[in-house]
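Teaching assistant here, posting this on the class forum so everyone can see the example we discussed in section. The complex has three components, and the goal was to see what a joint structure prediction looks like when all of them are supplied at once.
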Amino acid sequence: MKRIMIDREKCDGCLNCNVACMSAHQEGSNFYTVNLQAPESETRNFIKFDAKTGYTPVFCRHCDSPECVMSCMSGALEKDPITGHVKYDEEQCAGCFMCVMNCPYGVLKPDNKTRTKIIRCDFCEDKADGPSCVAACPKEAIMVREVSL
Amino acid sequence: MNSNFSCKTCASADTKLETFISNLDVETSHHRVEGQRVKCGFGLQGLCCRLCSNGPCRITPNGPKGICGATADTIVARNFLRAVAAGSGCYIHVVENTALMLKKTAESKGLLKGKRALAKLAKIFGIDETDEHICAAKIADAVLADLYKPDYVKMELVEKMAYKPRFDRWKELNILPGGAKSEVFAGTVKSSTNLSSDPVDMYLHCLKLGISTGLYGLTLTNLLNDVLLGEPAIRLAPVGLRVINPDYINIMITGHQHSIFAYLQDRLIEADVIAKANALGAKGFKLVGCTCVGQDLQLRGAHYTEIFDGHAGNNFTSEAVLATGAIDAVLSEFNCTLPGIEPICDELKIKQICLDDVAKKANAELKPFIFEEREAQSEEIIDLILDSYKERRGIIPLNLQPDHGNSDTLTGVSEGSLKDFLGGTWKPLIDLIVSGDIKGIAGVVGCSSLTAGGHDMLTVDLVKELIAKDILVLSAGCSSGGLENVGLMSPSAASLAGPKLRAVCESLGIPPVLNFGPCLAIGRLELVATELAEAIGIDIPQLPLVLSAPQWLEEQALADGAFGLALGLPLHLGLPPFVTGSPVAIQVFTKDMLDLTGGQLIIDDNAKSAAETLNGIIEEKRKGLNI
Amino acid sequence: MKIVIIGASAAGISAAKTLKVMDPNTEVVIISKDDTIHSRCMLHKYLGHERDAQGISFVPQDFCEANNITWMKNTRVIGVDPQKKILKTRHHQEITYDKLLITTGAAYFIPPVPGMREAHNAFGFRDLSDAKLIDNASKNSKNAIVVGAGLVGMDAAFALLELGLNVTVIEMADTVLGLQLDPKAAGEYQKIFEGAGAKFLLSEKVDSVELDNHQNATSVHLASGKIVPCDFIIVAAGVRPSYDFLEGSGIAANRGITVGDDMRTNIDDVYAAGDVLGISGIWPNAMNQGKIAATNMLGGSAVYKDRYALKNTASFYGLNTLSLGNVNPADEVNCEIIKREDKNNYQKIVSNDGLILGVIFQGDIGNTGFWQYLIKNKIDVSDIDKPIFDLSYADFYGIDQDSGEYCYTL
């Protein structure tokens, strides 16, 4: 399956990945027009910063054994057998947030606006060029690679 | 849930303030630090250029130059020059207004409270005139004439103001400034798209801007203010939120231009105005100090005991000052007037009035100070403030903090008052330095910021480390506002000093950290340094003197820093000024500067190691003087 | 090989999925008393009319068909003969098996309060069939009583409020959600529910239920003397693992079926997983146990390691809460508690000597998943020099260069 590989040393905290992710999930927007003030503009990836350790990209791994899928009580989260990516059915989701609780890396979060759904990486499955964050990184700190399941 | 705005506020060296702010239901700058915690690395290094539409360009291994061909060194230098030019412009605006104020006051035969200051300036400028008003007008004219010169005509007062060895060195380096405003102009032009791409030339221009900022924007502003408003006088004063007295109509002032308040501050204590306040149930009016203009009032507070309650805090304390609910109006004329006070003033119905359009807040009423109309303007302002008091008092709840701050901060220290205190000569101080009872002097100056550990965290920690090493600290700027509120400028702080410094302080009844007031007073520190160097017969870089702006905040601070480097002093900053992406910048500031002016930039966000470095430098300088 | 699974909820379905992924040729038969596969965690959405029966399923409608699973719905197992490897159903069928997985979950418990078990209008809230009965009862009702203010009780109360009923919740403890939250966090939910019209009678015990001539409860009498009228009662006073049908089978059980770390019972080829074990009534754990049982039934040697069960999320009326570990440390326990609060959040961390013992995040629960890892793996955070609330996974970041999977670096 394809996974986003991370080279932490290269990250410079420019947050392009955040902006790209918000834009990817805001229909018809681009870097000029993505609304950087609306609570609905949410990034699925996070850059943490600490003076000692520098920048740390925290991105969904679409894990081989996804804890989120294993905790979903509504069937909204499933690991796609072909792509290997975790898929999220927002309609089916019951907003119980057990997935938020179980992700060992704290990647998942409820949505800002309604607090009834989750915000999670969809690997930009609907985009021909793949994950928008990867395309937007000026340091090539994140790259898509084929890994064995 | 309680009604706190957010449980994520930044730390403050002033723990009482930290608690107060964390429990507020209004948002302050302290609340906003968390949301801005991840800083863009390109920005931090100065490697992002937005000067043209081919950008924004960022320097990366795949893109090592901007599209125009600008290298990292060029991009950093342009960004830095632009910032120093803007910062210089700020200070020059202040001295220009101050000189104009003095000129108009003199021409209208108004009261000049600082006679000794007038005589001193006249002597420096070489003006021989017995009539004090004509003399003052000539002084003001001389300053203004210099400010308005084109950049190819050198300013004349530089030679009169600067210490000769420094002046000679600057002449050799060809960094004597032309007209101050034109140099700012030149700085913005040079750093624009596809103009200068010579980083070293740009850094030398920064030094030039530093000199004009330091001598005019800093030193002269103080001296001109002294003529108009009276010289600083040493006294013990209350500081912190406790100074706010709810029995009065309270006005918080923000800015750097004390002269703008000259007329108003006297008018507010006249009987008929007090009567208007009485009619509404208040005892009168009080000015509550905040930011540098508050420090200026505090400095001269001995002359203004009736109208001035005390200095409540520095720039990043201003929101907390308003949150006490006891402020009825804000009068702003310069920075730091945080945009963040706008929603707080709306919420607490505090009237905002702006006296200089450069500091316009979106919801402030603009009443730009016009000297000729000062009487009418003051009446209007007073009435607006009375209305505000009527509208809000009794309705908006109070949240006073009578325990915050202290009542015994030593203030009013200047090159004049300190020398007077020592008996009219610097000899006692020089003797103490020679004997080693005072190992050296550290000017810990400049702004307060919320990064570098939190609000005033690095500043306070650094000062504690320095005084523990018997180094006397002189402070000026918002850093003073922070240091005084945590008690380091009270005589009792002597107990935190090293044994030798402690003994000196206790015998003199002074704290180990002396309060020179506003950041403008960095110019006063330069006067002290000059006079000491002169007395000993050496140049400034040889003094056991170091400079630190640990939590520098704004572009003005960078212009101040350029002045410090031009004076040949070691300059410590907590965080780098967006230059670390350029090897040339690092080379110039940390190494080459030693050969150029004798100055050196030291960057360290750790108080202990920074203090050790500065201590080491002071000991080196002592060795060089054989003491 | 023919594998029979009794029960079609989290553990059973998870096991069935795993079996079919590992070996699609295995014959899998699911026998369930339910006639629909549904998530019991979503029952309140059904009762509150937010979703229909299909909407609370956690698998696609054609799950069994698509995966070639024989599903005997509406069928109760009444006995097991492990020697002959035969099950008996209530319809007198005899089902053979090569391996058996018991995932019959738990059933609601009605306390022996006079009148409560006899009342025709006292219902549990465990299965869809319960929800259907309650839905029916609510049609001509005004006043409802919910006994028990735990998670199930609050779910029920929420649904009934959605239906527009007068709801009174009776609870023996002095807070709602006493097993999941601390009094402060619980109090926030109580406030919101009260705002929606619910009435709470805390520190109250039901002494007896008054019945009319038709054996319908008309009111509830409390130990304090209060009398609360009702048109029906929902009893959310806990559940007991369901394994009555194992009587005489020799399969060991003690307040739940006894299994090893591999989900095997004491009898060869008989496994058990999920709430029927009585060790943790948590959905993710049930799914995990089902997966492990299935793996081992096909010859694998999976071990049930991550047993951590002190974990809960609650989400009502837009207020979300995450609660982990020991959030109500008794006074004598040696620990440090720090809290923060603002108008939207209440946060609490219980720790001791660098080990996190428990956390509550109420309000914004985003990105908090890593706390569970820290707590259950007893990670010592004392060396990390930052305020404890600033911790995140970034402080333990580690990545496998080949697979790109994260790990914890300690």
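For the discussion questions: The radius of gyration of chain A is 15 Å. Chain A has two domains: 1-59+121-149, 63-120. Think about how each of these relates to the inputs above.
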